[in-house]
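Fold this sequence, please.
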Amino acid sequence: MPSPAAAPDFDSLAGQLDYPMLIVTTAVQGRKAGCLVGFASQCSIDPPLFMVWLSKKNHTYLVARSADLLGIHFPTQDNLELATLFGSTTGFSTDKFARCAWHQGIEGIPLLTDCPSRFTGRIIQRIDTGDHEGVLVRPASVGATLTSAQLGFQQVRDLTPGNEA
């Protein structure tokens, strides 16, 4: 475990990285949720598995705790407005889906029309990793492939998080 003295140095280093941003959506009993996510990775090739980490402060996390599926969207640089909506607006008080185009995917998962590079993943495990929970998914359906550059952290780093009530 890093020493408390190393934390500011690590924060500085991590803040310079430009890791890809994703938008995660889910629905449980008609209750929709979605958020911008900065922590995610493919973590197995065979079988294909992917992990996303959801902030425990986030409305999407609360809904996803009861979900069986997640929509994992890969926004491009053209989706900055959509990323801003899902990254700086809280689902505790705002219906984000009333402000964007979407349609229902398998089992009612909301899929963002303007972000066709996506897949729907079946949740197979949840792992407590501190202030975020890792959600391990197995792809159940896949949308289009990326057609332009993926949206990165440096493009959204100044957003004020919309993750608390």
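The longest helix spans residues 80-88. Helices lie at 7-14, 59-64, 80-88, 153-156.
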